[in-house]
Design brief:
Two copies of one chain form a homodimer.
Chain A (H helix, E strand, L loop, with lengths): L5 E5 L2 E2 L6 H16 L7 E4 L1 H9 L8 H16 L12 E7 L10 E4 L3 H11 L2 H19 L4 H15 L9 H19 L7 H15 L3 H10 L7 E7 L10 E6 L11 E6 L3 H6 L5 E2 L1 H6 L1 H18 L3 E8 L2 E9 L4 H13 L5 H7 L12 E2 L8 E5 L1 E4 L2 E7 L2 H8 L4 E5 L7 H6 L2 E4 L7 H9 L3 E3 L5 E3 L4 E4 L2 E4 L3 E5 L4 E4 L4 E2 L2 H6 L9 H16 L3 E5 L3 H9 L5 E5 L10 H9 L3 H25 L5 E4 L13 H11 L3 H11 L11 H6 L1 H20 L6 E5 L5 H22 L6 E6 L2 H5 L1 H5 L4 E5 H9 L10 H6 L16 H15 L4 E5 L6 H9 L4 E4 L4 H23 L1
Parallel strand pairs in A: 15-16, 16-17, 17-18, 25-26, 25-32, 26-27, 27-28, 28-29, 29-30, 30-31, 31-32
Antiparallel strand pairs in A: 1-2, 1-3, 3-6, 4-5, 4-6, 7-8, 7-10, 8-9, 10-11, 12-24, 13-23, 14-18, 15-22, 19-20, 20-21, 22-23
Helix pairs in contact in A: 4-5, 5-7, 6-7, 13-14, 13-19, 14-19, 19-34, 20-22, 21-22, 22-26, 23-24, 26-27, 33-34
Chain lengths: ~900, ~900
């Protein structure tokens, strides 16, 4: 018997099956499997990869046996479809696609509508009653065929279309009518003749053979070769060719087309969720030119097809064990499934579906945990717009979505104004960019919008920390601080006017759109009973599975009791980073801080610090109470001191009045403290070394707070963390000082408490010399924000000038401030951890900073053996899930490798 | 026979010898050896370390046999010295010192003048005719004995002296006369009685035994124990006790005291170089209260002692095989050598002496090379003040000595003014700090003085590169740019007034001090025939030995032909770093550069670049010609673009007139390019990636220059170096671009040349991922300046705020910008090199930047296997010698370890 080169599929049967990827390619095997399992896919056949290999080993000729098998398959296709290839009365049109074992975007594009010719077009026009559609399909076919098979430059066809539109004085392709398209077809054919010195082939068979061989040729085009090289795909696999019937949903009222999901992708409800249109093309449903009908209607209009569709899709869901997103077409009462794939869904739906499917025993808990993208969980926590009210507002710009959730309120252009306006209603703080001065304003605002900066700018980081919606880098905003106005997209807004921002999408609206708080947050806050929230029940169950699975602890970055409380509600197991400097910006404290900085001797500095101490101590007591029973890591003062001083004459005058130091002295100090590269300047432990009295005061406050609580029988183990250590002697200096101060403080209270002194590893040199530093450290916490800045030499505040170009040029796959660069910065983390543990076997190692809430980075932290991650409170569920997935994924990997 | 516990030395003999360090301690063995070899040291004896071990193993008792041996030794000492212990007529006074096998600064202080008592003092006063000296010696003895032996706090004695001075209303100890000191002795004795409940012992024997046992006790005092722990010295070695005769040069006209060198320490001439005073103490010679006599005078005054001294010192030089710095005393016609040690010398003298000693066959060439501190060589190249003319100027301040050499000229406060004033005579450029704009002014000036910055500030680096004297960080300067004046130490200077700076010492003078150019530089420049310079001959021979010994190549950092020429003259074997940006600041080029930056589209940018290209090409041709036959590494554009733009309105207006772009546009662009941390901003290869046309232009110029020279039969292999690479894809992007451009350029010339494309490793991530980067690189060059900045997280421009504190607190041993931090940043260099060579076995690896001229860093580079170092031209001899020493030192080490 001759070798079999052609495999047929269709009408519930198939020559091949899903396992034959080597021979039929991925697509061919998939179509065979679907057809075999009773899914009505448009029938067709696959020419094997063997054929392709033969083609190349025989001087680019197909096997002689192919011709007959190929013809037989076409005949069978005509029979099964009930149509004739090239028959104007009832034409069979086909698509031709390549299909290798591995998906290869570098290969040939699809050719649709093959089989069209002048006669077929006329027949089909009559058949569908839609000549515009038919002529459009024809001109598309000539265009694809001309380009893909004959190598005519795409732009040649585009130019012809443009010319036609100019003549007709229209802007859009859709504005061309049937006659125009018919004319265009004529022009395309002329172009084809000019370029190929041949007429466009009217013989469908010729079209088909040329297209088939073009697929084989495409296996060795430059794009495909370089794609294989990059992806290490062997060059000798060859590709298959898939020829499949075209079906049409616009062949009258017994035809239809639609899309749908097997469950509701918005909320996860178990309901058949689809839309369709009769006598329509797929595009019509998606494009919104006609309003689609809801699926129950189909039960009346096309009852048989409806029943079949419902039964098929629910079978598909069971088969793939996940929600399916499907496309279907009914051609004259015949249902065809065009596509089925895993359905995308919102965070809420993802959790609901995962939990439901476990209850339905469709999937295991482990699988459920792997079904939800950790990032999606943050959607469950963020407030949302009341979609029904959106009509009252106008979208005017789109920035970078930096903090999930929706916010709406009056515009304030300064932090002070935000505080003031917030007294009489919600405020959105709008700034060119934010800095630590703005903290109180950000605190008062319901949302933050900036013109400059990326997802890790100050505004974004602080906003996410606060769980506030935030849009940054919205360059369309022209803010004029002088007149306190802003121009955007032709609108001019004054302070106090309404604006709305969507931190999920980055959209900015002029006008007020009411928001709805997240259901889960309302339950967590006690504003809603958990009994009234099914979603909360689902969420809680799901997170419980995650917690049972994970090994990594999850802590929060939190500076104030309110954030600490939220963090606990969201599942934090301690505080991994308390930034003490945020405590110094409050109204009654800042002048004291400023006085301290302006002192030119240690006695005056100590005086000011002595006044600050009680405030700090109270702050810590508040934090410790919220975190009772959990560890709290407190970082000593980190930012350069100039951040606390006024920069302008007016600000200096104002401060001068408050503290009685001449404005000129204040400004002179501010200038004196100015730095060329503050990121690499006098900050972190360098402050505590030059001004040991600052560290002293902070340690007094930390230990004092713990001692006072110990008297109330509240026990807490504070972890004092020294920032920006690069040399073991820096840590030793600060540690010795901390221990001395702690001992004195405990003595003065007559109380003994346990405490640790450790360090951040955020300077590359610290990671490199981690073995030395570990000798002085009770714990390490990787500050990967700064480690990324210094390791890459990227200033987070300036990298916006080149990171977009780097992503566009694929120099970087991802923004390293968003997700940890595992092969570079991650190596420093890995090295630092292993070197540290060489010296101290049980050294506690964590990570704080933005990456602690990034799922990929959390998984990395699990894999390199960290003890915990710490992230902003609203990222905690994300981190908990990612930590669980890390365990499950490495379990899967080790099962795989043990096979 | 009883065990021998006491070893005598003196009168040309000794019981012990130099090898008995275990038993006699280092000092005791040395004294025995000197005495034995005929050097007249004051006689004395050593109590063995055995005695100390016995003392501790027998409940703090000395061996019973010791007593008799001890007494015998004292008797012998009296005999040899012809004096009596406690004899008022002719008293023997002794010193008592500890002396372990290893030098231990943690142990007991010396006790001098032991044997003094009330009677002895009276006798000695008569004998010396100098009662003030005698009473002063006595009160010092009581003080030392009271403190060291009896443990009375030093401050008690100091308080008594202060009280006495207050009573006498004088400020200095020297203002107290004999009677005052006599009174002070009485007070000290009273104090002694109060504190010890005993009288001060008048019995010399009692004094001696107590002092001896105090030495044994000191072996286990806290300081000594902790010193041993830190230096890993075993605790059971014990210490010896040295008792030695005191001698006095102030016993009349047959007594004298002096100091000297066996060769001239200023210029190395082989001449007896000493000064002395008759009837004087050692302090009198050093203190300058009396003018010492030149040594030839001694031949007349004390002919026998002179002859003896000359013969002894020349023997000592031969014995130690190095120049000796000696102290001697003649006591009543008896010569005693008090000390001899290796003599410190200037750079010139060091080289001359080393070469002479090889010629004299005293030392080998290898030894000669190890005898000169590499840093000293820079003294041979720098101009110096004409010391005789210093009286015309007043020292007003002291800054940081940042560029060796002396300079004198008129003050200019701006680069423009410097250029202008330089037309009519030498100029010193005085700036708060310098930046790339100032290049032309620095070029025009003979010296540079700044108020801000450290040894690696822009001013210092550029000045050293230019071989110009430079003083930086001179904070006493109050520069007022508005009025173009400067206040310093009460002087007010206007622009054009004279100033002088000493880059060796950091001293700043108001007024003019003529300078003398370095002799060697004059020969190298051809201004002086090498036949007329003995020093040059010596220098050349010495450097020839260094070159023969070293393995590391030495290249220069040079941007212009003049520097390249100097570099070649100083022995450079290529250019390791040509900073192309320095070429853009010249008058006719800067506006083109600015036009390029101000263009908002690639077409305009290319237009401006096309005009810059010929300039760059000519620059490269000039460099290549000077470096014919050697490699030239050219770095593509590195600094952030805002450095090229005006910052003030006035500058913008001026530029606007030149290039016709509105001043507001210029300022807006300047603001737009402003960066928070320019060090970590849009610079290095990030420029070439966002603006590939810049790299393109530079590669065209480099390859074009090489092609044009190739036509003239001048062959050169340019090495194109991509800066600030942190990710392999950055290098790949720029390398692909460079290769494409180079191919096109060569094609257009019809010439084929060899060239390399490599990268700087200066971003920590690059060192961490060096294996990946090596795949794309033809060579690596470590940019340790930036690697130190990013590795430590220290901004070079801002670190002045904390590095001084770090050095003071010993957190850092050395400024990491001056000498490479081997245990941190060096680890990155080592790691990067070995990872790179794992991928490419023969990868060429070098270092450019300041550390390339630092001897310790050069040695490190040799040890980790680098191929070359590159440094500023005037550091090249330093690097050549350091590279040679690295070889010799590792040879020595391996010889040692193989023994």
């Amino acid at each position: 018997m001759a070798k079999k080169y052609v495999y047929f599929f269709g009408a519930g049967k198939a020559d091949g099956n899903g396992k034959m990827k080597d021979l039929l390619g991925g697509k061919g095997a998939g179509l065979a499997e679907m057809s075999r399992s009773g899914v009505p896919v448009p029938p067709g056949f696959t020419v094997t990869t063997d054929t392709c290999r033969y083609y190349y080993s025989h001087g680019r000729r197909v096997p002689p046996e192919l011709q007959a098998q190929f013809k037989d398959a076409m005949r069978k296709l005509e029979k099964v479809s009930g149509k004739g290839f090239g028959d104007p009365e009832n034409p069979l049109l086909v698509s031709v696609r390549s299909g290798a074992k591995f998906s290869m975007p570098g290969m040939m594009d699809t050719i649709l509508n093959l089989g069209s010719n002048d006669a077929v077009v006329e027949g089909l026009s009559a058949l569908t009653g839609n000549p515009r559609f038919v002529w459009d399909s024809y001109r598309r076919f000539i265009q694809m065929f001309g380009n893909v098979v004959m190598g005519i430059d795409k732009s040649e066809f585009e130019r012809a279309i443009s010319a036609k539109k100019r003549e007709k004085n229209v802007e859009l392709d859709t504005q061309l009518d049937a006659a125009d398209l018919r004319d265009l077809v004529a022009r395309f054919k002329k172009l084809y003749r000019e370029k190929t010195k041949e007429d466009f082939p009217q013989d469908p068979w010729k079209q088909l053979v040329l297209a088939r061989d073009a697929v084989f040729k495409s296996w060795n085009n430059d794009r495909a070769i370089s794609y294989r090289r990059m992806n290490r795909i062997p060059d000798d696999l060859g590709t298959a060719v898939n020829v499949q019937t075209m079906v049409f949903g616009n062949m009258g009222d017994t035809s239809a087309t639609g899309v749908g999901f097997t469950r509701n992708p918005m909320n996860g409800a178990k309901e058949f969720f689809a839309e369709y249109l009769t006598n329509a093309q797929g595009e019509d449903v998606v494009a919104g030119t006609r309003t689609p009908k809801h699926i129950p209607q189909m039960a009346k209009e096309l009852p048989e097809c409806y029943a079949q569709l419902k039964s098929i899709t629910s079978r598909l869901e069971k088969h793939y064990r996940d929600v399916q997103d499907f496309e279907f077409t009914v051609e004259r009462n015949h249902l065809y499934m065009l596509q089925t794939r895993t359905g995308k869904r919102t965070g809420m739906a993802a959790v609901k579906i995962a939990v439901d499917m476990v209850r339905e025993k469709l999937i295991s808990k482990d699988e459920a945990l792997l079904r939800v993208e950790p990032d999606q969980l943050s959607q469950l926590l963020a407030p949302v717009f009341d979609e029904s009210q959106k009509k009252n507002a106008t979208q005017v710009a789109k920035g970078i979505n930096a903090g999930p959730g929706a916010a709406s309120g009056r515009v304030a252009f300064t932090a002070e104004k935000a505080v003031e306006l917030a007294k009489s209603g919600p405020v959105v703080l709008v700034r060119p960019e934010t800095n630590p001065d703005d903290i109180e304003g950000m605190n008062a605002a319901v949302g933050i919008l900036t013109a400059i900066g990326g997802r890790t700018s100050h505004a974004a980081v602080v906003a996410r920390g606060m769980g506030k919606p935030c849009v940054v880098g919205c360059q369309a905003l022209k803010i004029d601080p002088g007149t306190a106005t802003m121009a955007v997209d032709g609108h001019r807004l004054k302070e106090g006017e309404s604006i709305s921002i969507d931190g999920f999408t980055g959209e900015v609206y002029v006008g007020r759109i009411p928001t709805i708080p997240s259901e889960i947050v309302r339950v967590l806050r006690g504003e809603l009973s958990h009994k009234d929230s099914e979603l909360y029940g689902v969420f809680k169950e799901f997170m419980g599975w995650a917690d049972a699975a994970r090994k990594l602890k999850v802590r929060a970055n939190a500076d104030i009791p309110r954030d600490a409380k939220a963090a606990r509600q969201l599942g934090a197991e301690g505080i991994g980073l308390c930034r003490t400097e945020h405590m110094f910006f409050a109204e009654e404290r800042l002048p004291l801080m400023q006085q301290m900085i302006l002192s030119d001797n240690v006695v005056d500095r100590k005086k000011a610090l002595d006044k600050l101490m009680p405030f700090q101590k109270e702050d810590f007591k508040g934090l410790f109470k919220e975190m009772r029973g959990f560890p709290v890591t407190i970082r000593t003062l980190d930012p350069p001191l100039h951040e606390f001083l006024p920069k302008t004459e007016a600000e200096a005058e104002a401060l001068s009045k408050k503290i009685g130091i001449p404005a000129q002295t204040i400004l002179a100090k501010s200038r004196d403290l100015h730095e060329f590269n503050p990121m690499l300047g006098h900050r972190g432990c360098r402050l505590g070394i030059v001004y040991p009295e600052i560290t002293e005061m902070q340690v007094q406050a930390i230990i004092g707070a713990a001692c006072e609580l110990a008297r109330e029988k509240i026990r807490i183990v504070p972890e004092i963390m020294i920032p920006l250590v690069g040399h073991k002697n820096e840590l030793k200096h600060q540690k010795d000082l901390a221990i001395r101060t702690a001992d004195e403080t405990m003595k003065s209270y007559g109380v003994k408490i346990n405490y640790l002194v450790g360090t951040m590893i955020e300077v590359p040199r610290a990671a490199v010399t981690a073995d030395q530093i570990a000798r002085e450290a009770d714990f390490f916490s990787f500050g990967t924000n700064d480690l990324t800045q210094m390791g890459f030499g990227f200033s987070r505040d300036d990298a916006g000038k080149f990171i977009p170009a780097y992503l566009a040029e694929k120099i970087l796959k991802e923004d390293p401030f968003q997700t940890l660069d595992q092969e570079g910065i991650g190596k420093l983390v890995e090295w630092g951890t292993s070197q540290g543990r060489k010296v101290k076997k049980d050294l506690k190692v964590g990570i704080c900073g933005e990456h602690g809430g990034d799922p990929a980075s959390v998984k990395f932290c699990h894999n390199v053996g960290l003890n915990y991650v710490s992230c902003s409170p609203y990222r905690i569920p994300v981190a908990r899930l990612a930590a669980a997935q890390a365990v499950l994924e490495s379990k899967k990997k080790s099962e795989y490798s043990s096979k």
